[in-house]
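Worked example 3. Consider a protein that binds nicotinamide-adenine-dinucleotide.
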Amino acid sequence: MNSLVATTRNFRNAVRLLGLDSKLEKSLLIPFREIKVECTIPKDDGTLVSYVGYRIQHDNARGPMKGGIRYHPEVDPDEVNALAQLMTWKTAVANIPYGGAKGGIGCSPRDLSLSELERLTRVFTQKIHDLIGIHTDVPAPDMGTNSQTMAWILDEYSKFHGHSPAVVTGKPIDLGGSLGRDAATGRGVVFATEALLAEYGQSISELTFVIQGFGNVGSWAAQLIHERGGKVIAVSDITGATRNLNGLDIPALLKHKVENGSLHDFKGGDAMNLDELLVHECDVLIPCALGGVLSRENAADVRAKYIIEAANHPTDPDADEILSKKGVVILPDIYANAGGVTVSYFEWVQNIQGFMWEEEKVNQELQRYMRKAFTNIKAMCKSHDCNLRMGAFTLGVNRVARATLLRGWEA
Ligand code: NAD
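Given these inputs, the predicted complex is written out as structure tokens:
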């Protein structure tokens, strides 16, 4: 199922549980603004090439819109739309004063040189600089973009508007980035997992974990679980998967990956099939790679007791239904991976304050936000008699609905 259809379905179910009227439903669903721009740049060999860039600003009732910019050949307006909408609910679940947005350029960043990427980022920024801003819309990195991309956006934007570090988050530390931002999503995933397990009287140290994806989110989550005594028994990335039922030595696996660029030939584990990993026996499965990996085809075979959705949209609605019937507890993406945007918020706050926090403070505040959000989700589950996904959706949608109503409808 297309991610926009799935997200909208969850939104409509939440609207029904909350008893919101149809006028409000429509207003919450339709994006605030959709931007589509043509970006033409000279390649290094002098030939011209054109790309299409998007920025979908979904909702700003609770504050400036917030969301990543991805560079990927399959950037598609429907998916950007779904992800922008998800950001609106996610920032509301985390209770940070933001709305939601998402953007991207349909390009293959691997096929572009560094200077071509810089030119493309600067042209895109020139086209949208009037429509983003510290109190309007604050981009961040996403797939195919990184802190360097944010540095170029900051620089280009500042040419028009004066020095403005708070216009983007996920920046290099030297340009006003926050300590702890790199690990934030993975750390948030671990705080969220701890909050969930505590409900069942369990802790990370007594359980086994399988992690799909060993990039930013997956590798930090694996490291922090390992530090807490959890047994990470299988890990995969695009290059392959490795398994050790006694628990992988995660620091050694990270070292192997840095040195070899892949998980292949890791001596501390046995190679395994990529698809097998998702249905491997374990207590906790953490998808940290792509969307839609749990589907009607494999959901019935999943043997985990808990699924922590660190990736965006890893479980399609068919799989959601099958897994719920099997009694698998799913911690939804709009809560589980909110640690990244929460520390992005701390970065923006530090830039506006002109004051840098210690990493310890960043991590403590992140834990406080993640715990509070979990308590709030559980309260919604109780009052609406629903699962955690609907608990998170009703929490987020209700907060945005309340802000919208308080602001009023008068033109
Ligand atoms: P990343 O690019 O750093 O890592 C992605 C990982 O997935 C890589 O290890 C890659 O090899 C692996 N992968 C790709 N295809 C795979 C496959 N078929 N099987 C197994 N592994 C595969 O990305 P990331 O920043 O870690 O993001 C991971 C997920 O988390 C994405 O869904 C992203 O949208 C979501 N997310 C990330 C952040 C963040 O702050 N980075 C915040 C919120 C959500």
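Take a moment to read the result before moving on. Residues 143, 185, 212-218, 236-238, 274, 288-290, 310-312, 337, 340 surround nicotinamide-adenine-dinucleotide (CB under 6 Å). The mean pLDDT is 96.
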